[in-house]
Amino acid sequence: MIIETLSWGKLEIEEQELYHFSKGLPGFDEETDFALIAMAETPFWVLQSVKEKGLSFLLGDPFVFYPSYEFELPDDEAEELNIHSDVLVRCIITLKEQAEQSTINLLAPIVLNPENRAGKQIVLHRTPYHTKHSLLQEQTAIDGKDGG
Predict the structure, then answer these.
(1) Which of 37, 132, 135, 136: CA 20 to 30 A from 98?
(2) Domain spans of the chain, in order of start
(3) What's the chain's average pLDDT?
């Protein structure tokens, strides 16, 4: 399949790179089909809308940046995605002009089932994570520098 992107022009996408988000992404409910494009030899991916070339998100592997990152996937979410074993977790990255100000959203990870290629952004509840963790260093206290 060939898709159009703003950054790379036309790209050929393999079927295993396509993911369906039945409810879209928050704020982009109409966009349900995305390609997950790996950026070779980096912990980054691009989630590119199949229909809208101007809609893409930079994703990162949260476990590379925050090795202690963990959460429990609610049963209803796992059931909706039909997850039995394999699961991919990626988080949206916001790049800033000054790299040290770039952030990763650990509060709302993108959860992907590579078996049926279903995906969903899940907002975690009762968690110490938030939407703007520093991308460059794991903080000693996830819940803030002031210890509380």
Answers:
(1) 37
(2) 2-134
(3) 89
Give bridge partners of residue 118 from the DSSP assignment. Answer: 20, 113
Instruction: Give which of 106, 102, 95 is closest to 68, Cα–Cα.
Output: 106
For the segment 38-97, what is each residue's pLDDT rounded down to a tens digit?
998 888 999 999 999 999 999 999 999 999 999 999 899 999 999 988 899 999 999 888
| Residue 69 · residue 63 · CB < 8 Å | yes
Contacts of 74 (CB under 8 A, 6+ apart): 122
Question: Cβ(22)–Cβ(118) under 8 Å?
Answer: yes
Tell me the C-alpha distance between 35 and 45, whole Å. 10
Task: Write out the E strands in 8-113.
Answer: 9-12, 18-20, 33-38, 44-49, 56-60, 88-94, 103-104, 110-113
The fold adopted by the segment(s) 2-134 is: BH3618-like (2.30.290)
Dist CA 78 CA 97 (whole Å): 36
> Of the candidates 88, 86, 81, 34, which has an alpha carbon nearest to the alpha carbon of residue 57?
34
- Region of residue 24 (left: phi > 0; alpha: psi -120 to 50; beta: else): left
SS3 76: helix
Q: Kindly report the number of other CB atoms within 10 A of residue 67's CB atom.
A: 9
